[in-house]
Amino acid sequence: MAEFSAGDLPNFSISHDLFSDITADERFPTLPEEELANLRGKNQNQNTSKSTKTWLKFFNGWKVQRNEARKLEDIPCHELDAILCRFFAEIRKKDSQGYEPESLAVMQCSLDRHLKNCGRNYSILRDREFANSRQQLEAKARELRAQGYGKVFFFPIILLLFCVIMAFYSAEYFGNKNNSQYFSLPFFKDNSLTEQCPITD
Prior knowledge:
The chain is an all-alpha fold. The chain has 2 domains: 45-146; 155-196, no CATH class. The chain is 52% helix and 0% strand. It has 8 helices and no strands. It has helices at residues 24-27, 33-43, 46-65, 77-90, 101-117, 131-146, 155-170, 191-196. Helix 4 (77-90) packs parallel to helix 6 and helix 5 (101-117) runs antiparallel to helix 6 (131-146). It is extended, with a radius of gyration of 34 Å. The termini are far apart.
């Protein structure tokens, strides 16, 4: 195997002159406000932007029917709160069905986001000037849930059912040819029930 001396190895060196022409201004450039706005716009979630446009269009369609020509962002706070109260109470789908309560929350956030994008320094989600419209929306959501709208979480029911089935298996109720053992459970102790439901092999 050939041996190499230190003199046979190539010399590598990095010259600091390569970076000497980079000034502080080039390293930390001052970006114009328009470019900053473009960067923020690109970072905005597309679904969020779409949701904002969708619900704003829905609000605009409703206010036209109520003879309200002003834009959402041009309505004073005290008037906007009253308008939102009526809007939250009256909104329906095209088939006259109610919206899911979760959809109402998304709608409220979308309108608030539009106001923020327009440079308004108030929030319909937090400011006390819009307490009435928030209460109206909460009441609407409770009414819809009472009518059966909203997400139903089946996991607790499935978990309970699974535990019952496992209890049956562990007690060897399943797979046993003697079906009378089904009725040895506590809730079948009533003899009248077994008399009404005779068990045959």
